[in-house]
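Form 7-S
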Amino acid sequence: MQFPGVNVLWHEDIDTDFMREACGLLRNRMGQPAFFNSDLIVQGLTRYGIPREHAVEHLPSTCSETSIQGRSNQAGPMPYVNIALALLYAMFDGQHPITGAREGPATGFPQTYEELKDAFLTQLDYAACRAIEEGNQGLLLESWYRPFPLLSCFIQGCIENGRDFSRGGPLYTLLQPEAIGLSNCVDGLAAIKTLVGGEGRYTLDDFRNAVLQDYEGFDDLRRAIRRDCPKYGNNVPLTNDLFAEAADKWCSAMEGHRNLYDGPIFPGFLGWVVWIDFGKETPATPDGRRAGLPLANCIGPCTGVQLKGVPSMLLSSAGFDQSRGLGGIVYNLRFSANSLKSESGVERLKNLLETAFSVGIFQVQVNLASSEMLRDAQKHPEDHPNLLVRVGGYLVPFALLPGDAQEDVIRRAEVEL
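Output:
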């Protein structure tokens, strides 16, 4: 591997000193290690009938998607699905707001928040069903064009079944569709509920026109969205509930289905770097985001949102049972550069991570590089060859990221530990 990652699989019986030392390693400011809630992941795997003795041998296969070492395929997460578009389709009768192309079921042009929310859940269900179909097509194409004869010799089931790694040979063949842009959907729905359904200051037609015009001429509406509406990540009941309901719909639409090789489908929320590319092709969204800007980079708050602090951020997503997100979940946290300078800072991080996992968080990864260091690395990359950051579940040299990804890392909220 070019940039191998180091991960800690936390469980209730983990050695306290080991956990403390692992947190201290983050002083290297290279994002190593990331932390996974092993107890939660094992719980999710056993729910699918996977024996505990196999489930406890899980690993994040590339970023944060779940694999079972030596026993499962590793096709990578696929497909990635832009669910921010699902909200736009709900606003525009299942059509793309700019091209007019039919992309989802006809759910009308909602006039109330309740109608919009119902339409969104319908579009999300449709997107999940299409993801299963597309993912199965991907598995079929891999079986035709990507054989792995050597790897098949080392994965349980392939020799026994007489099948290649890419043709359903492993003991467990997994399909892992990923939803991108969930936090944008939550903030958009919260804005519409507040400004349309609650205060009546604006109508859904106002929101539709703002999307079509990329908020040009709608400065007052965009200002109201940004300043007067609750934002996901601040432990507000409205946004917490919307997050849990949307995540539940994505998962429930897939749970119970089987993939091409009769293996389980693990829904996930892993963004890799797709949140950047999807953002480039996504029109303005009702959370105030302008067209072309990146979508949310993980299941945490949208970049640029004003936040109360880390506990509120984590609690905002804890209402959803994250053991259902075995396809992969990433939670990015960025602390000030000197947060771990003292032993007390390391202890606070350890306590924070253990508390996060105790309330059901799937994964946490930490960046400590200051904005000043990151800006300097943009200008003088040759001076920072070993500056690594966590993006979408994997580790990468900051200098190798495209400019928009660098900007998103810099704009992430830098919170106190």
